[in-house]
Amino acid sequence: QQQVKQSPQSLIVxxxxxxxxxxxxxxxxFDYFPWYQQFPGKGPALLIAIRPDVSExxxxxxxxxxxxxxxxxxxxxxxxxxxxxATYFCAASFPGDKLIFGTGTRLQVFP
Amino acid sequence: xxxxxxxxxxxxxxxxxxxxxxxxxxxxxxxxxxxxxxxGQGPEFLTYFQNEAQLDKSGLPSDRFFAERPEGSVSTLKxxxxxxEDSAVYLCASGLQxxxxxxxxxxxxxxxxxx
Lengths: 111, 115
What we know:
The complex is a heterodimer.
Chain A: E1 4-7, E2 10-14, E3 20-25, E4 33-38, E5 45-50, E6 56-59, E7 62-67, E8 72-77, E9 86-92, E10 100-101, E11 105-110
Parallel strand pairs in A: 2-11
Antiparallel strand pairs in A: 1-3, 3-8, 4-5, 4-9, 6-7, 7-8, 9-10, 9-11
Chain B: E1 5-7, E2 10-13, E3 19-24, E4 31-37, E5 44-50, E6 53-56, E7 65-68, E8 75-79, E9 88-95, E10 105-106, E11 110-114
């Protein structure tokens, strides 16, 4: 019940494309859903996050779509750039608690 | 301001050695988390402090792992009698906690290799 399932494992798009990464969770008590971006040799960097009381949140080129009834959420990257090539992790947590991460999606954006 | 810092960035230990990994959280951050990240995997929770109190250590894989945060700021993760399966990146994250602030900010990690 504490798992967060993430797909796809890897994704290749051309510059300007819109990669979409999906996550699903089981526990309806989760209250916070962040996305992290991680470059090789670096720690995860907080990208954008959403609470379950909203269905969508945009920050720059990054958008989270949240479907509470389906217990799913996704990350969309608009106008993707080669610099967006990284591994992306979704996560979920109970209020003020530890993060439970998905398995990650390796994104490659080709020029 | 300065982010979360961790030291050393890389550590090579022979099997059976003890290691100590340090985390300096963002100034003023109440909560501090340790995670373990195996190669190609997502981070997995180890332990959590709120100020100096260790509130959750359910993720520590064995009694060889020990963490402390005696003054509610810097934290140390200690691994005794290291084993090859301990090889991983150890990440520290800090956050304000409380109210609606759930954000956790990660340091660069310490890559531990046990030979």
